[in-house]
Every structure is written in structure tokens, then in C-alpha cells.
Design brief:
Blueprint lengths: L20 E5 L9 H5 L5 E7 L5 E5 L9 H5 L5 E5 L3
Antiparallel strand pairs: 1-4, 2-3
The structure holds iron/sulfur cluster (2 copies).
Length: 88
């Protein structure tokens, strides 16, 4: 019986309904430091082409693959990410 998945399948395997929390990116607080994108274990945080109130191209994530671990929200030095209940 297989109990593990192959490496690098994050962008193939969508996150199921088991996720409890999800990140909310507060765009106007984002300084585009890119720390969140370097730390996300799933590699699904990216910089957008949209400019925020402080003139930075803010970051977002692809919720289709986000596992809701909360690492991005914990480590963002500017408190620009909050975890919220993932209402199904
Ligand atoms: S860590 Fe925070 S401030 Fe830095 S890019 Fe990510 S959301 Fe923006
Ligand atoms: S909650 Fe975890 S998986 Fe989702 S974007 Fe943040 S660091 Fe990545």
C-alpha cells in the first residue's frame, strides 16, 4: 500500500476539504519583501502585477494548493497576512 506521494506533486494535488484555516493577504500592508514566498512549503506564494497603496507589487497565494499551515502569516514581518477560518 502506498502511504506517500511522489516529490514535487504539490501543484498536481489540490488541497482537499480538510483545510481548517487559510491565509488572507492584506495587500496594502505588503512591502514585497518576499519572505513569505521563500518560506511557503508548498511554493505557491507569488508576486502579482498589482501595485498597493505604498507603491509595492503585493504578494498573493494560490489557495487551490494552500495547505493552511500558517507559516506565511507567522513569519511575515509586516503582519500583512492573517489566518482566517476557511468557510466551505
Ligand atoms: S512576507 Fe509579508 S510583507 Fe513580505 S512579501 Fe510576504 S506578505 Fe508581503
Ligand atoms: S498557509 Fe502555508 S501553504 Fe498556505 S500559503 Fe501560507 S505557508 Fe503556504
Amino acid at each position: 500500500m502506498k502511504i506517500t506521494v511522489k516529490p514535487s506533486t504539490t501543484t498536481i494535488n489540490k488541497t482537499g476539504a480538510w483545510r481548517t484555516n487559510r491565509p488572507k493577504f492584506m495587500h496594502d500592508k505588503c512591502t514585497a519583501c518576499a519572505i513569505c514566498s521563500r518560506l511557503c512549503p508548498e511554493g505557491i506564494i507569488y508576486q502579482t502585477d498589482q501595485t498597493n497603496a505604498i507603491g509595492k507589487k503585493y504578494f498573493e497565494c494560490d489557495l487551490t494548493y494552500c495547505k493552511g499551515c500558517g507559516l506565511c502569516a507567522t513569519e511575515c514581518p509586516f503582519k500583512a497576512i492573517e489566518m482566517e477560518l476557511d468557510e466551505k
